[in-house]
Amino acid sequence: MSRGGSQKRERLVVLLGPTAVGKTVLSLSLAERMGSEIISGDSMLVYCGFDVGTAKPSREELARVPHHLVDILQPWEGFSVTRFVALAKEAIHAINARGKIPILAGGTGLYIKALLEGYQFNAAGGDDAFRRSLEELGRTHGKAYVHAMLKRVDPKAAARLHVNDFQRVVRAIEVAQAGEHISTTNEAQEGALSYDAYVVGLRRDRQELYARINARVVRMFDAGLEEEVRMLLRHGVTREMPAMKGIGYKETAAYLAGECLRAEAIKSIQKSTRRFAKRQLTWYRRMGYIHWYEADTEDAALLTCVHADVKRYFEKWNRKTKQERHEDETERL
Q1: Which residue, of 131, 153, 183, is where some domain finishes?
Q2: Residues 37, 25 within the same domain
Q3: Which of 33, 38, 262, 280 counts the most CB atoms within 10 A of its CB?
Q4: Are residues 175 and 135 in the same domain?
Q5: Cβ atoms of residues 203 and 10 within 8 Å
Q6: In a shared domain, residues 259 and 295
Q7: Torsion sign (Cα): 243, 201, 205, 30
Q8: Which domain holds residue 132?
Q9: Is 4 inside a domain boundary?
Q10: Residue 3 lies in a domain
């Protein structure tokens, strides 16, 4: 049978790594060198007005390269893996249609894994993978975040169930979301991905990464995180809204409410962010198709190395595509 009947996979570069590892600098430089566009794979960059605490690229950085999935939602809107996958697919298709190779940059492991490995959202019955995704969100974003998800799909159940009654909250979401569960296969390898993707992973020594996280949290407060949260609250954003459940925002809001000292809020954010980075690395260990690079390499050298590997990979992709096209034409003769 001709392979020409199978749909060609679209091209994609993925740049992932734990928070504070240095993805933004490399993604911008790589996109400029490739003439590409960046798709955010971060679950918090989608929110308008949440800039300092999310380490969102600056206006100048956003202007350097076209960005997608940044500043597209209001704080009261929920953002799920299903919505991310749908929007990311649209952006990837559009960028490929323009003759470019998109760069998906981010650190939300569940989102990126679901996109790359082709998680299916269907009308199946109870699904362990869907349940695990909710449990992972509880670990990474907090129980209150998952409870807020239930409130959007079943307010009565949310009112009845306490935020700490986590398993019943998860089960209630499963019931309410029947028909939109995730079903997935076993761990995918590079050839089995939904896209013809070269996946770049950045890593650093664990203690160095933690030191960078601690320093970045301090810089966020110096850059105005406290003022940003105060302004959001003043403009009607409440602590119960999904975006306010993010790390950095919930702790700062608690400080502004007089529930803790400023120094305590900073330490709490640092601790939560370090734990988040550790969980991200756990996700990445399940993704055997990642090509790892040491992020402590000098910026120019790292860019040159990654770009050369990406270029080499897609040159191989072009040769393979031409060969398959030739074989298809031969079979039709």
Answers
A1: 183
A2: yes
A3: 38
A4: yes
A5: no
A6: yes
A7: negative
A8: 120-183
A9: no
A10: no
Q: How far apart are CA 232 and CA 47, in angstroms?
A: 12
What does residue 47 show for φ and ψ, rounded to 5 degrees? -90, 130
Instruction: Please count the residues of the chain.
Output: 333
Distance from CA of residue 66 to its chain's centroid?
17
The one-letter amino acid at 119: Y
Does one domain contain both 174 and 90? no
Q: Which residues contact 31 (CB under 8 A, 6 or more apart)?
A: 37, 38, 65, 103
Q: What is the DSSP letter of 332?
A: H
| Vertex 203: Cα angle to 199 and 207 (nearest 5) | 165
Q: How would DSSP label each residue in 122-179?
A: ES-S--HHHHHHHHHHHHHH-HHHHHHHHHHH-HHHHHHS-TT-HHHHHHHHHHHTTT
Taking the chain (333 residues) in runs of 10, the rounded mean pLDDT of each run is 57 97 97 98 96 97 97 93 94 98 92 89 55 83 88 84 84 65 42 91 97 98 98 96 95 98 98 94 91 93 97 82 58 58
